[in-house]
Design brief:
By secondary structure, this protein is of the alpha+beta class. The protein is about 40% helix and about 25% strand. It is built from seven helices and nine strands. A hairpin with a 3-residue loop joins strand 2 and strand 3. Helix 1 packs across helix 3. The longest helix is centred in the middle third of the chain and has 16 residues. The radius of gyration is 18 Å and the shape is elongated. The N and C termini lie far apart (about 45 Å). About 25% of the residues are buried.
């Protein structure tokens, strides 16, 4: 069995949670440790054959693959809340969501990646929302869907979401990858007609 330091164990736990992680995401999660020290720890884990690196920036557990949708969902989570404990407590979600997490122990989110073939995910959420509303079962805590998409070539999908008129509140997270180490993340909140207020 490989011996790990506490920091190495933390890194392995973060990467293992979803099978992959951007090194830049890991630097955020490992704060206040300095970036150079985080890279040193990562290199130790690679030498111990516990982690692998893909394209010089994506960490994966052994026998796992890098998933760009997962990486994008994690960027959206970090934009909403970069707390280590909230990230640690996040978990795989019930379909159609990919990840469930809470922010600051008060707001809960179902994070899901969208591309052109995924509007059925939103339609399923609309159906569930309408069933819940018609049964008059309301809970004190409402889980807000977060729709994550990459900026590249998704303008048509954004228009289709806007035109769909969904009656539940949601957050749209657009991830724009560029030259910088960290992509820009733009968050937009819906204003459902039934509520007239942002989530």
């Amino acid at each position: 069995m490989v011996q790990l330091t506490r920091e190495e164990h933390d890194i392995l736990s973060y990467v293992s949670k979803f099978g992959c992680l951007d090194i830049e995401q890991l630097k955020v999660l490992m704060q206040p440790l300095e970036s150079k020290y985080v890279i040193t720890l990562v290199n130790c884990l690679i030498k111990k054959r516990v982690l692998s690196v893909i394209s010089s920036r994506y960490l994966v557990t052994i026998n796992s693959k890098m998933s760009r949708p997962t990486i994008s969902c994690i960027w959206a989570m970090l934009e909403l809340d970069s707390s280590k404990s909230d990230f640690s407590e996040s978990m795989r979600a019930v379909f159609p969501a990919d990840i469930f997490f809470t922010a600051g122990r008060k707001d809960s989110f179902d994070v899901m990646y969208l591309d052109e073939g995924c509007l059925n995910k939103i339609a399923l959420l609309q159906e569930r929302y309408l069933k819940k509303e018609s049964s008059k079962k309301s809970s004190l805590i409402q889980t807000i869907p977060v729709f994550v998409m990459d900026d590249a070539s998704n303008k048509e999908l954004i228009v289709r979401i806007k035109e769909s008129g969904f009656s539940f509140p949601f957050i749209l997270a657009i991830i724009a990858y560029g030259e910088a180490d960290r992509p820009s993340v733009k968050l937009a909140k819906s204003v459902p007609q039934a509520y007239h207020t942002a989530p």
